[in-house]
Sequence to fold (618 residues):
Amino acid sequence: MSNINISFILEALGTFAFAISGIRLAAQKDFDLFGAFVVGFVTAVGGGTIRDLLLDTRPFWMTDSIYLIWTLTALLFVILFRKYLIKMNNTFFIFDTIGLALFTVVGIEKSLIAEFPFWVAIIMGTITGVAGGIMRDICINEIPLIFRKEIYALACIFGGICYHVCHINGLDQMFTQIATCSTVLVIRILAVKLKISLPKIKGENA
Amino acid sequence: MSNINISFILEALGTFAFAISGIRLAAQKDFDLFGAFVVGFVTAVGGGTIRDLLLDTRPFWMTDSIYLIWTLTALLFVILFRKYLIKMNNTFFIFDTIGLALFTVVGIEKSLIAEFPFWVAIIMGTITGVAGGIMRDICINEIPLIFRKEIYALACIFGGICYHVCHINGLDQMFTQIATCSTVLVIRILAVKLKISLPKIKGENA
Amino acid sequence: MSNINISFILEALGTFAFAISGIRLAAQKDFDLFGAFVVGFVTAVGGGTIRDLLLDTRPFWMTDSIYLIWTLTALLFVILFRKYLIKMNNTFFIFDTIGLALFTVVGIEKSLIAEFPFWVAIIMGTITGVAGGIMRDICINEIPLIFRKEIYALACIFGGICYHVCHINGLDQMFTQIATCSTVLVIRILAVKLKISLPKIKGENA
Fold:
């Protein structure tokens, strides 16, 4: 299978998993079908949209209707299989982490093509990975989950540093992409399995 | 009366009604005059602003101070006539629906001028119509109303489909605009009168 | 000391104070280090970012890593000195107000360079000063403070009017900047000392 086909499938899985996470939370909050669709779409494409606005390029989902179609598929999936969703949590977790890894790489590469320095590219990779989830939680009126729990954004940042190290050492692009994705995947999976989280910031009254 | 004058008046009514809806909710939440103004302005111009950022064109309200003036008028109106606002609910509903219809058409046409495909134009029409209300509800820290109640965005989507059908059949632009607005108006009014709403999305525990 | 050095130091103080305000609120909400950093950064650069997106120029913090560094410094500061933060409230208040004044001037001048009319420049100055705080409060899931309390945005608006009056009278740019900053500072400090606030907007049931 060619490289393009693999990344197409991985990106689809990631988009699907991100949309599913938004739609499931919308369902818990008593949203209607339209609200669930919007929250799913925002979760799936929100991070890349903010990145594209900051980079001043056309938002990626406006050039290809596939992201809309994947979100509609996710909506249909939740409607049809809602009783089995909990049992699929591990699968969704893997898809979601694949999405996170892939979105990070896409964000970094788009920024480097636009000739931004590496520290901007790492931030853009992280925004691509996490901002959709932040917008999702704002839409359902909750404090964004990733501000309080789990190593999530940090996996993107380490992925970005890995990309940078490969890049300055002149390594092959495909190797760099795979190494970056693997870094994000390993850190995220280890953090969840070993229940590692970032320390809380202590307030003045703590 | 010329076409330009009619659409000027209708757009003013829509802006005014959108601003009023934001200011009234701000009043319920104990906002001060500045907060009420901001929420009114965000409700009135937020959807079009997000559309223009996505389309990479200058935000429409930055080229003409009339939107600012309509929002200030709405603020003054709420201050002066607050005791009579509830009695005017039906009037506001009509103005608001006119705004929704007109904003949808403006969003579609701006996207087509920018040479986007029709599915993007329909999304942009819908964003123009509904995103201001979503931003309003985020500002007052509530779950966006349109995610849970009423046929609202769906009216924009059907309006967009109507525009598309007229367009591919080569119908006159003014007829197309009137047909689109009428579609939005009729669907929205029927949905409210007949209390039709979209089904909820069921969660895994439902 | 040259003009550039002074404004560099003042801008640093403002960025630092804005970031501190976000990080302290994040700490009250049980955020982890990453969440606190994001909220601090959003508070510090959010207003200028929205301004730059609306003006269609490159977001200022993407061209210089100093804003990132100031936010990291603020994070470290809160971690190290959290027991003494309350005692420093007056100092933070002064820094924050300096930031507000300076950000207002930056927002106005960027808009005028982009050849927008003065009423747009005043709005952009105000957005630069206050939108970061609004985004901060949305991130921590609270109603934005400035919609309900204190004269804050109004100080920016009066600063903007002062800039306009100096400008149309052909006064020297440096004098205009100092007069504008002073206007913002005096109004903000007087409002807090004299406990002046804007009237609430009364709802229909009040």
